[in-house]
Structures are given as structure tokens and as C-alpha cells.
């Protein structure tokens, strides 16, 4: 059986233009949201992962930004590696626009998700140049597990799931659509509100890849 959720039902397609600029992304996001519906355990771990972030609803001068850097998975065969500075450049552009609109300086709380621990170390060094206006935090244990065979174990899968949920909750995300993680984050954000413009990809445009399911 081939699962192709991008086949949006004709009965609702014409009405989707009212709520979404990308009906396909919205439709796929409905499936993803249902599959990833929270459990008490995932909610507990997600709250713990977000503990380093100040509540965005109570302080208007703080914005939450997510960065997903694909470091080890299939880079040689499927995707190009981008330096961290390229991700930061998009963050700088976003903050400059937001500060011009708001009329006051913005502090960025940046969640960095990656499967390469060295990227987190590099981000810590780059953070210093922003003089406290950028606060970078990461799920370091998830990065270490994702960079090894442990990513296939339960703890590794849970770490990836939490990264996805935290990224989807950020106001602005920079990633690469060649990554399944990045596309999943965009789909989850699209369901909540039409936030497609708040996900910036450094490489390809959004696309859905159907997959085959063979019952055992």
C-alpha cells in the first residue's frame, strides 16, 4: 500500500485556500499532527526541554527561533552541508526585519537541534559575538545519541521527537527541506496557523515524498 496524503480531497481543496497558502503542506500536517499527538510522557519531556526558554507570551522583546542542522545523516548522498554561519545569517535578517517592525531591540532565544555535537560547540563560540542578544540552547544528549547508532533506540527516537516538537513551537525556523525533520516541522507549524513563511530552507523548496507501507 502506498500512502500519499498529499492527495487533498477535492471536497475541501477549494476552501483550504482561505486558511492556508500551501494546502498540500496543511493536509500532510493533519496526518503528522495526529500521529505525533502528545502523551503524558512526551509532554513531560518537552516541558523539561523548554525549561531554558523564557515564556514568549509574557515578554514582547524576546523571540524564539529554531535552527536544525543536519550533520551526519546521508549528507554525502542526499544533501549539501551548510556552515552554521549560513543559518545565523537568516536569523540576522529575520531579527532585523522584526526589530524594524516592532521598533525596539529583540533578544533571540535560539533552540539548536542537530545530530552533530560539534555544531553545538561551534554555536557556543559564535554566540559570544552577539553580546547577550542571542541565547542559544540545545538538547545535547539528543545530539550525541542522534550522531550514533543509538538514534535507532527508544531514547534516540524520543530525543528526535522532542527536537521536532520544540522546533515546531518556535516563531521562526531555519533548516533544510532536504531533511525529513525540517519538512515535518513545517507541516506541524502549518496546521496550527498558516506559518509557512516562518520556516526558511537553505536548500530545496518544500516537497512531500510518499512512502510504501507493506503490512507484515
TrEMBL record:
It holds the Pfam family FUT8_N_cat. Signal peptide: none annotated. Transmembrane segments: none annotated. Belongs to the glycosyltransferase 23 family. The keyword Glycosyltransferase applies. This is GT23 domain-containing protein. InterPro entries: Fut8_N_cat (IPR045573), GT23_dom (IPR027350). Keywords: Glycosyltransferase, Transferase. PROSITE patterns: GT23. It comes from the Eukaryota. Residues 1-211 form the GT23 domain. Gene3D superfamilies: 3.40.50.11350.
Amino acid at each position: 500500500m502506498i500512502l500519499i496524503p498529499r492527495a487533498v480531497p477535492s471536497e475541501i481543496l477549494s476552501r483550504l485556500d482561505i486558511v492556508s497558502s500551501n494546502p498540500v503542506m496543511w493536509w500532510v500536517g493533519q496526518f503528522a499532527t495526529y500521529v505525533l499527538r502528545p502523551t503524558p510522557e512526551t509532554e513531560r519531556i518537552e516541558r523539561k526541554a523548554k525549561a531554558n526558554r523564557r515564556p514568549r507570551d509574557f515578554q514582547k522583546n524576546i523571540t524564539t527561533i529554531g535552527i536544525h542542522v543536519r550533520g551526519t545523516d546521508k549528507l554525502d548522498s542526499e544533501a549539501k552541508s551548510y556552515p552554521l554561519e549560513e543559518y545565523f545569517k537568516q536569523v540576522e535578517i529575520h531579527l532585523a526585519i522584526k526589530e524594524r517592525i516592532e521598533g525596539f531591540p529583540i533578544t533571540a532565544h535560539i533552540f539548536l537541534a542537530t545530530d552533530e555535537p560539534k555544531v553545538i560547540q561551534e554555536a557556543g563560540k559564535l554566540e559570544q559575538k552577539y553580546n547577550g542578544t542571542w541565547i542559544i540552547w540545545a538538547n545535547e544528549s539528543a545530539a550525541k545519541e542522534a550522531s550514533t547508532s543509538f538514534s535507532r533506540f527508544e531514547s534516540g527516537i524520543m530525543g528526535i521527537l522532542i527536537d521536532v516538537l520544540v522546533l515546531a513551537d518556535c516563531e521562526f525556523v531555519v533548516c533544510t527541506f532536504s531533511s525529513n525533520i525540517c519538512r515535518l516541522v513545517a507541516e506541524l507549524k502549518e496546521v496550527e496557523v498558516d506559518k509557512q513563511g516562518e520556516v526558511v530552507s537553505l536548500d530545496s523548496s518544500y516537497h512531500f515524498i510518499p512512502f510504501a507501507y507493506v503490512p507484515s
